[in-house]
């Protein structure tokens, strides 16, 4: 794990990469769509973080009881991560009924976020090749979305699938296919595609 010292705070590279990806994706989406990113985006991250941190209590109850403050320093690990992803999926599925734009925006936004995260993390961990490939993919996705919006062209599912496959292939070059990050990406992609399908089914029902 790569650590960075920021003032008196020591932060893992993965946390810094997450914050960078959150900010960059939000700014990129503002440029692409001309709109502020939906509140679901920030709510989803906050929920993920809280569940991930709180899951430490569930999976390390004895340690927590002995030292309650440990929840501030530790998290639920891989198990907590998967639990947080499940909570995230449930939240998005519930939120899509309230926020109509979510089903339209979730796939491109989550794609931008994850690819941006991988680019930032690779850069922070000084993995030049991975950083370059992810950055190229991020720029390609952003350019496609920007041109599509400007020309009022609906994003093709097939093109999104190609981007997802490209990211999956890039991940597989640098880490095992069934490690945490590829599995996380697969989960997010499936969730986003399901939300997009929800929008289409709603349109069909109303018609």
From TrEMBL:
Transmembrane segments: 6-28, 40-59, 71-94, 106-124, 130-147, 159-177
The protein's name: Uncharacterized protein
Keyword terms: Membrane, Transmembrane, Transmembrane helix
Domain of life of the organism encoding this protein: Bacteria
Keyword flag Transmembrane: yes
Organism from which the protein derives: Planococcus koreensis
